[in-house]
Design brief:
The complex is a heterodimer of chains A (357) and B (302). In chain A, helix 2 (21-36) packs antiparallel against helix 8, helix 3 packs across helix 12 (259-272) and helix 5 (96-120) packs across helix 6. In chain A, 71% of the residues lie in helices and 1% in strands. The longest helix of chain A is centred in the middle third of the chain and has 27 residues, at 223-249. Chain A is an all-alpha fold and 357 residues long. Chain A has one domain (16-298): ABC transporter involved in vitamin B12 uptake, BtuC (Orthogonal Bundle). Chain B has eleven helices and two strands. Chain B has a two-stranded antiparallel ribbon with strand order 1-2. Chain B starts with a helix and ends in a 15-residue tail after the last helix. The chains are: A mainly alpha (357), B mainly alpha (302). Chains A and B meet through helix 5, helix 6, helix 12 and helix 14 of A and helix 3, helix 4, helix 9 and helix 11 of B.
Chain lengths: 357, 302
């Protein structure tokens, strides 16, 4: 690699800061909200933030790599139960670090096991979607009948708040409000990590796989392993979301594996915009606050509304609602109307075999 | 002592026969659900995630009409008709718009539709199970076990409908056009097959089969809004195991998935039966990624 001049170096640092401006704005917004909001509002936004990690895992897979995991809630449930059971079984010392580590480890292991045959054997992309859906459903069933380990259909209650105390440093959490800064920090960190990942060489490889898998394979890249790595990272993110959600909610219940959480994550990604990372997080906060406003409406009604929004977005707005406000798209539209060089693009974007008119 | 052993053997044979019957009955219904999915998947390369909810709608149509005193056998036909028409609407409004984009957006949109239908029915009729009484009570007894008459008739009827679909596909003009569309849509279109109409018809046929299966199964299972999820996942596992290579693959895959699940449930437990089915599918995907009975799609030609 050629030597980097000072000017180029500064340009790179500037570029990184500019890319991370979303994280900075998010952090500032959360800090202000944390000062102003009441404890209940803090709880709502904290749970939105924690669950937005699940949406990030969906966005990484669907938005960047073009693979569909229809059971992301499997990792939410796995992380939650791992945290709860570790806290319950290990009484000596503080098992918090171990609980988080185990949750993430199990998330990665499950993701790799589930994804391995689907990617390595190069099946149709729908197979991964179907198998992940089946895995989530069966984990939910199994959790509901395994009374000894998981408390069965009653779930586990009284899950302790995390205790991050180190020797000589008291970081024990005592109230649920203290969860807000933790959730904010974790989500901003996860966002930055995903941003770095997707802007790296690896991220460009993901986008290439999403756009034309055959071509990438022909160019000599290991498509299966790349997809497997994405699935594993997404599994880790989902399990982390679960491990944070269990102490925040104080309970772990088989419904954590359920389709409602999966659909919710997809709706957040679809509304916020696939492949934007920040979009799903903002959508999570906005829709969670909206859900809280609509408490009078039944849970079924809310889920129906989510499903309807999701369908409409998939059918009419393939880039998500955020795609409407995409700065680049707006610029393109503007240039197109002036007959600039972009004018040819819509013709070329259309597949050749598609009937015209 | 010898007497006891003989009695034990007799009991076992009876039990085995009963389990075999239960497995056959489960397989016949599963094959009926899966074959609809197969036609849609084979024809349009589209995964209809709402297929299980079409099954559920069939069961609810049966329950709703039966509660209004309409004849059970008429309701079977009505369920097929209602759900088939619903399939036409879904095809027009959703699938036709999306399937040029590639299968994943269809999958996502029908996934949304399945939740919408499931929760819509839950709001309309509640989440509690509804009971559909079969037109028959009791049944013949063989080796100490009773075989419910309705279950026997439902099994026979399911196999008869599957046979009719196979005949429709292999022996009629419609079947020829349908298979041509599956094997090579561009060539079929060039030879004056209206492939857009074929797609719509096969979507309607697949939906009608799901609705019929739901109505037929209604007296045998508990009718709840979420009942479709179980069936659609089983039917998808059938597709994965068998591969969409031919119309026969649905029956073969259903025999493996349904038979194993029913057998394992009888021996041990229903949840672990599903876990083992998933493990088998996991291994099969690794060993035979295109399915056990896939071939090259050539078999649709005859």
């Amino acid at each position: 690699m050629a030597a980097v001049t000072a000017r180029q170096g500064w340009a790179r640092v500037g570029g990184l800061v500019w890319n991370a401006r979303g994280a900075a704005l998010l952090l500032i917004g959360l800090l202000i909200y944390g000062r102003l909001a009441d404890p209940f509002g803090l709880f709502i936004v904290a749970s939105a933030l924690v669950l937005s990690l699940l949406a990030l895992s969906v966005d990484l897979q669907w938005g960047y790599a073009g693979i569909l995991n229809l059971g992301p809630a499997a990792y939410l449930g796995l992380g939650a139960y791992t945290y709860a059971i570790t806290q319950r079984k290990i009484t000596a010392g503080s098992p918090t670090y171990l609980a988080f580590a185990l949750a993430i480890l199990f998330g990665i292991v499950l993701a790799v096991i589930v994804a391995f045959p689907a990617f390595k054997a190069r099946t149709l992309p729908v197979y991964y979607a179907l198998i992940t859906l089946a895995v989530a459903l069966i984990l939910q069933r199994w959790t509901a009948v395994s009374y000894d380990l998981t408390g069965g259909s009653n779930g586990l209650v009284g899950i302790p708040l995390p205790d991050f105390s180190l020797p000589g440093l008291d970081l024990k959490m005592t109230t649920a409000e203290q969860f807000f800064p933790l959730a904010s920090g974790v989500v901003v960190a996860a966002y930055l990590a995903c941003l770095w990942l997707t802007r790296s060489r690896f991220g460009r490889l993901l986008a290439a796989i999403r756009d034309d898998e055959e071509k990438v394979a022909t160019l000599g890249y290991d498509v299966a392993t790349t997809k497997l790595i994405v699935a594993a990272i997404a599994g880790a993110l989902g399990a982390l979301a679960g491990a944070l959600y269990a102490p925040l909610a104080g309970t772990a219940h088989p419904s954590l594996f359920g389709i409602a959480f999966s659909v919710q994550a997809y709706v957040w990604v679809a509304v916020g915009g696939q492949g934007t990372l920040i979009g799903p997080i903002l959508a999570a906060i906005a829709l969670k606050l909206l859900e809280n406003r609509l408490r009078g409406v039944s849970a079924d009604g809310y889920l129906m509304l989510l499903a309807a929004v999701f369908m409409l977005v998939v059918i009419f707005l393939p880039k998500g609602i955020a795609g409407l406000f995409d700065a680049q798209a707006v610029r393109d539209r503007f240039r197109r109307s002036r007959g600039g060089p972009i004018a040819l693009a819509p013709v070329l974007e259309r597949p050749l075999d598609e009937p015209h008119g | 002592m010898g007497h006891l052993a003989m009695m034990f053997a007799a009991v076992n044979t009876g039990l085995l026969l009963k389990q075999l019957f239960n497995a056959t009955s489960a397989v016949s219904l599963l094959a009926l659900v899966a074959i609809g999915l197969f036609i849609i998947f084979g024809m349009m390369k589209v995964i209809n995630m709402a297929h299980g909810e079409l099954f559920m709608l069939g069961a609810y149509t049966m329950w709703w009409l039966l509660a209004r005193g309409i004849n059970f056998w008429l309701n079977l036909l009505a369920a097929a008709l209602v759900v088939g028409l619903f399939g036409v609407i879904v095809e027009r409004l959703i699938v036709q718009r999306l399937y040029v984009r590639g299968d994943l957006s269809t999958l996502l949109a029908t996934f949304g539709l399945s939740i919408l239908l499931q929760r819509g029915v839950a709001i309309a009729f509640g989440d509690r199970p509804q009971f559909v009484t079969s037109p028959f009570t009791g049944g013949p007894t063989l080796l100490g076990n009773t075989y419910p008459t309705y279950q026997i008739i439902a099994t026979v009827l399911a196999f008869a409908v599957i046979a009719a679909v196979v005949v429709l596909f292999l022996k009629t003009d419609f079947g020829l056009r349908a298979r041509a569309t599956i094997v090579n849509p561009a060539m079929a279109a060039a030879l004056a097959v209206n492939t857009v109409r074929m797609n719509a018809l096969s979507f309607a046929l697949g939906s009608a089969l799901a609705g019929f299966a739901g109505a037929l199964a209604a007296p045998l299972v508990s009718v709840v809004p979420a009942m479709g999820l179980d069936w659609v996942i089983r039917a998808f596992l059938v597709v994965i195991v068998a591969g969409a290579g031919s119309i026969w693959a649905a029956a073969g895959g259903a025999a493996i998935v349904g038979g194993w699940e029913a057998g394992f449930t009888a021996i041990y437990d229903a949840t672990y039966a599903q876990i083992t089915v998933l493990a088998i599918v996991w291994a099969l995907v690794l060993l035979r990624p295109r399915g056990l009975f896939s071939g090259t799609g050539r078999r649709w030609r005859r």
